[in-house]
Structures are given as structure tokens and as C-alpha cells.
Specification:
The structure holds two protein chains of two kinds. Chain A has a single domain, classed as MetI-like (MetI-like fold, Orthogonal Bundle). Chain A is built from twelve helices and no strands. In chain A, α5 runs antiparallel to α6. The radius of gyration of chain A is 24 Å and the shape is globular. Chain B has two domains: 234 residues, 3-Layer(aba) Sandwich (D-Maltodextrin-Binding Protein, domain 2), CATH 3.40.190.10; 218 residues, Dipeptide-binding Protein, domain 3. Chain B has 15 helices and 21 strands. The longest helix of chain B is centred in the N-terminal third of the chain and has 20 residues. Chain B is 29% helix and 19% strand. By secondary structure, chain B is an alpha+beta fold. In chain B, α3 crosses α4 and α11 packs across α12. The chains are: A mainly alpha, B alpha+beta.
């Protein structure tokens, strides 16, 4: 297993190199010039050109790539073109809110989706099942931002139960931290919940038709033991796979959710940096996202071995 | 033992109670603070930041008249060629060091090398020397009459006074530290670009003794801490104001105004009388068909300002038809050249274009897709052009791409452009020298590159005029000439009110080029 993990980690290096190169050149060939944005509305073309020279953006793209790559290999992601702050600091500032939002969303989604998926499979083709499937269709169909605005309108503006926006670090108290995450987690979690509930139901339906389940029922085992210990454990591999895929979906969902709920996370940082053409930040973020994705995939693959003893690495 | 325990508890409670009493103003501005150097960029938000952190030698009062701010006394020689300034007592930077003429001179030189108005001023300066630590002298080659107005300008690139150390930074590079002598201290360690910029009350600030009036008079910090919170989504920002999570919202979307007007505790305040926006259609003078003045003038026949203003603003309470280039309602408003707008006639526009040599070639319009006012205005223009029978090549792109593309001088087919739309602040546009878009400095001018030495001569003459009557006369001549040359086509003026929680804050004053935040107090 250790050898497998080490092998997989080494295999990420070429992936990251390709991602880095792709992102760098894609950004340079995309329209837009950070120097013009920095200089502002009343700047002359001459002034923009002078800023471009000072930022080194007038140099050949290959030379710029070489400089960036050399710095990157020494652990330096560069500085923001606008704020002059190190990219590593800017990313570090944003990790906590995104991590908190992602984990709370995962928690909300998994904690609710798996039980309702199991119940739907158990009560297949009955009213409960139809309700769950109806919810799943609605959850998929509802765009995150629409649900977000609806939640804000009722829970924050009308009933004033929760804040509209913002993020409070856990260091400022547990309840302030939690109350800021409730609405965004629900808004973002519903799509995810629908996805997991559907897969849980499908996977459970397949397992519930197996002979060993029939045997367990014939032995007179309690329904909850049959469902949770015998069926769910054997249905877990596809569910875990979907949770893994969902984390990638979560990254794109986080961008919208962080914007609507004004959470200063990595998603917002990405959108802002793209709109402002702040190249070093976008490059750094894409590398971080790629690394996170590779790591999640690795964790999912490793978890298979624990869930299904037949799988060996 | 019990007494000791109580003492420890009391000590622990003290900072908590101090924090609880801290008065914090949470404001959402029109953009987020990403650049901390107001001289390096012309971005308005960088200047709002700059006005909190830095002080200026002069500041405009509510009537836009420059009044001494860091300067205590000043003298102008009878020939109007020598200005002697004496700094007032008690000026200190946030690091505790005193403000001296070394800092001031280095700051003016840096600003004068970067900013358009500063460059114009420095073009007249033959000497800028320190007499002692508090006195310095500026000598001019001609009696330029805009010295104080330039040093006190608000809007873009204020003449911020920095420490000499930062002021010696190349003007094309951003300073690394924002240490000024203004009423608030920038808390760089708490700055999260794209989310929040924090300013702490400068307890050592010595305000002037005169009553506060916009950027002039006493700047008395009203709260302990100002947080400029950036909420990118305007709907969320509106909800946050209604919910009491923020106190001040600088530029709510016009669509939200009816909702905000009804919200409990929220008040709307019209921005300063000149602090609106003037819409501009900018034509590229370098390439056909608009390298021909007749083709440029043809475009006036496509512009019915009401159409634009209704699309952008809707409610006539917030807009004004204005057929001039110098802000309507400003001191130099005049009717020079306004006759060009009298005949809205798309067919005539096409006919005049044809007479100017237009043969149906595509006209490239940079069509912004993500701007709440420029996008609808561009759509109105494109529609009018198409209805007239003009071949429009509307290239849709985000605002970031427009600002890059408009700097390209190549022909439209090679990545250039023919038309783009933008807006400019009413305060700057009210004065021929500060209004850079009215200029026609050819290749050295702003995008579109109008070229007319007569216009530049008139702008210089305005700066050298010795009386207000003479200035008004020159302003009219200038506007007439600029309209004739079509430096740009104005499509009206509008202003968005500020929204704030009247039940929580007080001391809000109308903007004069920039938001004035330091005087706001918390109830």
C-alpha cells in the first residue's frame, strides 16, 4: 500500500507540470491586459505601456514562463500584480473559509443523503421513494444561486434568523462560525445531496436483491442491521466514488456560493483574479485545485481497499 | 486569593469590553481595494483608500473650491509665479515621524510624473525647493491658475503626501507600504484583497480648526475602525444593508432603489451635485470612417440621450439630459456645440456617413457584457446604428477585455476598434483642465486619440486665465471646438444615491469626486 501511495504521488508530478504549462499559456493568450486594468480609466496608452514594462509583461511569453517556473520550483508562486502581496499568503487567507464551506456542505449532504437514499431503496416504488426521487430531480434542476437567493430572502431578510453574508473564523466563536455556514451549506449541498441520494438508492437496490440479503432476512435479523451492516457496506464503493466526483463539482459550486454569500474563499479569489487578469493568482490557484483533486482521488482509491477487501494495491 | 482572582478576571474582561465598545463602520463601496497606491492607478477605489490614509496639501470643499489642508499658510507672489507654502503644525505620519518638506516635495514630484493633471502642473514648474522643514516654494514659468485646484483635486490620482521613502518609488511601480498622515491608518496585516480592507482611527491626527466641508476643514475620525467590505454581488449587498450587516452602500443598483427606499432604517442620499456620471461614446479618430470629422459628426444624429438614460437609469429623478461636455450643473456648463444634438435622425446619420466615404464596412463596437450601465448603453447605440443601416460588428467581451482592447491603436480588423462606451465622473468633467477626456493631445491623449492643437491650446489658456469670466468664455470656446471635433459624444448624466442605515450612522455627506468617510459617526 505504501509503495502504491508513493507511486501515485510521484505520478502527480507530470500531471501538475502539464496543468501549470497549460494554465500559463492559456492565460497569456486570453484577451485582457492587467496593466490596462491597473492603470485605470483615465490612464493613457503610454502610461499603460509603462506599467506593463515594470510588471515584466512586455517580455516574451516563454521567458515569463521560465521565470515563473524557476520561482515555482523554489516554492515561490509570485506576487499578485494588483496588491503586491505573495500569492501564497493570498491563498492561505482563503483556505479556511473554503475548507469550512466544503466540509460543512459535505457533512450536510452525506449525513442526509445516505439515510434518505437507503430509505428510498428500502421502500422502493412506494410514496417515500417517490418523494425522495422527486426531491432528487428538484435538487438537480435548481441552480445553486436561485436556491441561495430564496434562502437569503426568507431566512435572513424576512425572518432575520441567519446572516445574509460573510464568514466568521472559528476563532471568533463557534456559533458565529456555524451561523454563517448554514445557508451556504444548504444551498450548495442540495444538488450534491440529490446526487448522493440517487446513487445510494440505486446501489442499495442492487445489493438488496442479492442472496446474502435474502439469507440475512430469513435468519430473522433486524431490518436496520440488514440495511446498515449488510447492504450499505456492500453498496458503499459507488457511493464513495460519487462523493469523490462530487468534490470536483463542489469546487465549481463553491465559486457561485462564495459569491452569493460573500464568503472570502478560494472560489471568490479565483473569479476576481480571472476578471482582473491577475495571472500569478490564477496560476497558483489552478495548481492548488489540481493538487487537491489529485489528492482526493488518491484518498478515494485508498478507501476502496478498506470498504472492499477484494481490492488490493 | 479571591481578590487576586477577581483582579485577573477584571483584567481579562477589559480588552473584551473595549472591543465591545469599539465603533466600527462597515461600508460596501463600488469596488474592492486591491491597489494601495492612489498615484499608481487612476482607480477611484484606490483614491477612496488614499483619502483615508493620506492627507493632501489642499482639499476641495463642498463647493469644489480648494482650501488649505496640510498647508497652514501660503502666499502667492503678485506676478502669480511663486507660491510659498508653510505646512501646519502637528503633521505626523502613522509611523510617528514628522511630515517635512522633503516628503512633500518627493510626493509632488512622483504624482506630477504620473497623473495627467500633475503632469500639466509640473509642465509649468521651474523650481520646487524646500526653504526649511516646513516651508517650500514652487516657481512657475507662467502664471498657471490651477495650482491649488490641482494639488487639491479629488477623483482620480489625488496628490497624496507620502513619506519620502515611498515617494521616491518609481511612479510606474506601486509603493509597498501605505503609511500616510491622514485620519485613518491602513491595517495592512488585516487586509484581505477582494474581501476586506481595514482602517484604524489615527489617534494622533491633528485636524484643522475650520468646520468640516467635504475634503476641506477638520477631518475628525468618527469611528474607531472602518471596514471596507467587498460584496461582489449587488443583491447580497442590498440584503446585507437591509439586514443591518453593513452600514453604508456606496452604489446600489438603480433597480434596487425602490426596495431600499422602503426598507426600515435605510435612507438614500443623492450624491453631490456634480458627483454623477457622464456617459461617453468614444470614437477612434485614427481609423476610417471616424478619421473623418464629417463621419464623426454624423454619429450625433444617432443619439437621443433619453433613450440611453431610460435604458440605464429608468427613473428620471436620477438622470439629466445634458448636451454639453462640461458637466451640466457645474460652474462651466454652457451650450457651446449643443446644436449638434438638435436633429435625431438615423437616416441622416447614414447619409452623412456615406458622404464621408463610408461604404458599408463593418464598424467594430467593443460591447461590454458585465457592466451595469455601460452594457445597456452600448446595446442602445448598437440598435440605433443597426436601425440606421450601419454595418455593426459588435464584439462582446467583459469590461477587463474592453479596457485592454481600447488601448490598441491597430486598425479594427487587426485587433483595434472603432467605438467604445464609458463614463466619467462629474466632478472631473466640470473643469476643462481636470477633464482629461475633453483633451485632444493626439497619440499622447486618451484612447480614441483625438488630435486638435487648438483644443489643447484652449485648455492651457483656461489654466492661465486670470478671472472667472475669462475662464467661462474659454470653457465655452473649448466645448464648442471639442463638440465640433467630436472628442466624444455625451449621452447624458446620471447619479446613483448612496444608501445607508440612518438608524445606525450619522455624518454622511454628499460625495465630491470621492466618498468622504472619515466624518461618519456611529450612533
Amino acid at each position: 500500500m505504501t509503495a502504491y501511495i508513493v507511486r501515485r504521488l510521484f505520478a502527480t508530478l507530470p500531471v501538475m507540470a502539464v496543468v501549470a504549462m497549460f494554465v500559463f499559456f492559456l492565460l497569456r493568450f486570453a484577451p485582457g491586459d492587467p496593466a490596462a486594468i491597473i492603470a485605470g480609466d483615465d490612464a493613457t496608452a503610454e502610461s499603460i505601456a509603462a506599467v506593463r514594462v515594470k510588471l515584466g509583461l512586455d517580455r516574451p511569453v516563454v521567458e515569463q514562463f521560465g521565470v515563473w517556473l524557476w520561482d515555482l520550483m523554489r516554492g515561490d508562486m509570485g506576487v499578485s500584480i494588483f496588491s503586491n502581496l505573495p500569492v501564497t499568503r493570498l491563498i492561505a487567507q482563503r483556505v479556511e473559509p473554503t475548507l469550512a464551506l466544503s466540509l460543512s456542505t459535505l457533512f450536510v449532504a452525506v449525513a442526509l443523503a445516505i439515510p434518505i437514499g437507503v430509505v428510498a431503496a428500502w421502500k422502493a416504488r412506494k410514496l417515500v421513494d417517490r418523494l425522495v426521487m422527486g426531491f432528487a430531480v428538484l435538487g438537480f434542476a435548481m441552480p445553486v444561486f436561485v436556491l441561495a437567493y430564496v434562502l437569503i430572502y426568507f431566512f435572513a431578510v424576512q425572518w432575520q434568523l441567519l446572516p445574509v453574508q460573510g464568514y466568521r473564523p472559528v476563532g471568533e466563536g463557534f456559533w458565529p462560525f456555524v451561523e454563517c455556514l448554514i445557508l451556504p451549506s444548504v444551498a450548495l449541498g442540495v444538488t450534491y445531496m440529490a446526487l448522493i441520494a440517487r446513487i445510494t438508492r440505486a446501489s442499495m437496490l442492487e445489493v438488496l436483491q442479492q442472496d446474502y440479503i435474502r439469507t440475512a432476512n430469513a435468519k430473522g435479523l433486524a431490518t436496520d442491521r440488514v440495511l446498515l451492516l449488510h447492504a450499505l457496506k456492500n453498496a458503499a464503493v459507488p457511493i464513495v466514488t460519487v462523493i469523490g466526483i462530487g468534490i470536483a463539482l463542489l469546487i465549481s459550486g463553491v465559486v457561485i456560493t462564495e459569491t452569493v454569500f460573500n464568503i472570502p474563499g478560494l472560489g471568490r479569489l479565483t473569479v476576481d483574479a480571472v476578471l482582473k487578469r491577475d495571472y500569478p493568482i490564477v496560476q497558483g490557484l489552478i495548481l492548488v485545485f489540481a493538487a487537491a483533486k489529485v489528492l482526493v482521488n488518491l484518498i478515494i482509491d485508498i478507501s476502496y481497499a478498506f470498504l472492499d477487501p477484494r481490492i488490493r494495491y | 486569593m479571591i481578590v487576586r482572582l477577581l483582579a485577573v478576571l477584571a483584567a481579562l474582561a477589559l480588552p473584551l469590553s473595549a472591543t465591545a465598545q469599539e465603533k466600527v463602520l462597515r461600508a460596501v463601496m463600488h469596488a474592492d481595494v486591491r491597489v494601495i497606491d492612489p498615484v499608481w492607478t487612476t482607480q477611484t477605489i484606490a483614491n477612496i483608500h488614499g483619502a483615508l490614509v493620506y492627507d493632501t496639501l489642499f482639499g476641495n470643499d463642498a463647493d469644489l473650491k480648494p482650501q488649505p489642508q496640510m498647508v497652514g499658510k501660503y502666499e502667492i507672489s503678485p506676478d502669480r509665479l511663486t507660491y510659498t507654502f508653510i505646512l501646519r503644525d502637528g503633521l505626523k505620519f502613522h509611523d510617528g515621524s514628522p511630515v517635512t518638506t522633503k516628503d512633500v516635495i518627493a510626493s509632488i514630484r512622483r504624482w506630477g510624473a504620473k497623473d495627467g493633471v500633475g503632469q500639466r502642473l509640473m509642465g509649468y514648474v521651474t523650481a520646487l525647493d524646500a526653504v526649511d522643514d516646513k516651508t517650500f516654494r514652487m516657481v512657475l514659468r507662467e502664471p498657471y491658475g490651477m495650482v491649488l485646484e490641482s494639488l487639491g483635486k479629488s477623483g482620480s490620482s489625488i496628490a497624496a503626501i507620502m513619506r519620502e521613502k515611498e515617494a521616491l518609488t518609481d511612479p510606474q511601480q506601486q509603493v509597498k507600504e501605505a503609511i500616510g498622515s491622514g485620519p485613518y491608518i491602513f491595517a495592512k496585516d488585516q487586509w484581505v484583497p477582494g474581501s476586506k480592507a481595514v482602517y484604524l482611527k489615527n489617534k494622533d491626527y491633528v485636524p484643522r480648526t475650520e468646520a468640516p466641508s467635504s475634503f476641506a476643514g477638520a477631518k475628525i475620525p468618527g469611528v474607531d475602525r472602518i471596514e471596507l467590505v467587498w460584496i461582489a454581488d449587488p443583491q447580497t449587498a442590498m440584503s446585507a444593508l437591509v439586514n443591518g450587516e453593513i452600514d453604508f452602500f456606496e452604489s446600489p443598483n438603480i433597480d434596487f432603489l425602490p426596495l431600499l427606499a422602503k426598507a426600515r432604517g435605510v435612507k438614500l442620499l443623492k450624491t453631490g451635485k456634480l458627483d454623477g456620471t457622464q456617459g461617453m461614446i468614444r470614437l477612434n479618430h485614427l481609423h476610417p470612417p471616424f478619421n473623418n470629422v464629417k463621419a464623426r459628426q454624423a454619429m450625433y444624429h444617432l443619439v437621443n440621450q433619453e433613450d440611453f438614460l431610460r435604458a440605464i437609469v429608468g427613473d428620471p429623478k436620477y438622470y439629466r439630459v445634458c448636451h454639453g461636455l462640461l458637466t451640466c450643473g457645474g460652474p462651466y456648463e454652457n451650450d457651446g456645440g449643443s446644436a449638434f444634438f438638435k436633429d435625431y435622425n438615423p437616416k441622416k446619420a447614414l447619409q452623412l456617413l456615406k458622404e464621408a466615404g463610408y461604404k458599408g464596412e463593418p464598424i467594430t463596437v467593443l460591447a461590454t457584457t458585465d457592466h451595469n450601465t455601460i452594457t445597456p448603453a452600448t446595446q442602445v447605440l448598437i440598435q440605433a446604428m443597426r436601425e440606421a443601416g450601419i454595418n455593426v460588428d459588435a464584439q462582446s467581451m467583459d469590461w477587463g477585455s474592453v479596457v485592454s482592447r481600447r488601448a490598441k491603436k491597430e486598425p479594427p480588423a487587426q485587433g483595434g476598434w472603432n467605438i467604445f462606451i464609458t463614463g466619467t465622473g462629474g466632478v472631473g468633467a466640470s473643469n476643462p483642465v481636470l477633464h482629461t477626456w475633453i483633451g485632444a493631445a493626439c497619440e499622447k491623449g486618451l484612447f480614441g486619440w483625438p488630435c486638435d492643437p487648438e483644443i489643447e491650446k484652449l485648455r492651457n489658456a483656461f489654466g492661465l486665465a486670470s478671472s472667472e469670466d475669462e475662464r467661462k468664455k474659454i470653457a465655452k470656446e473649448l466645448q464648442t471646438k471639442a463638440m465640433e471635433q467630436v472628442v466624444y459624444i455625451p449621452f447624458g448624466q446620471w447619479d446613483t444615491p448612496l444608501a445607508y442605515r440612518a438608524d445606525r450612522i450619522d455624518g454622511i455627506v454628499p460625495n465630491t469626486g470621492l466618498a468622504v468617510l472619515w466624518g461618519i459617526t456611529k450612533k
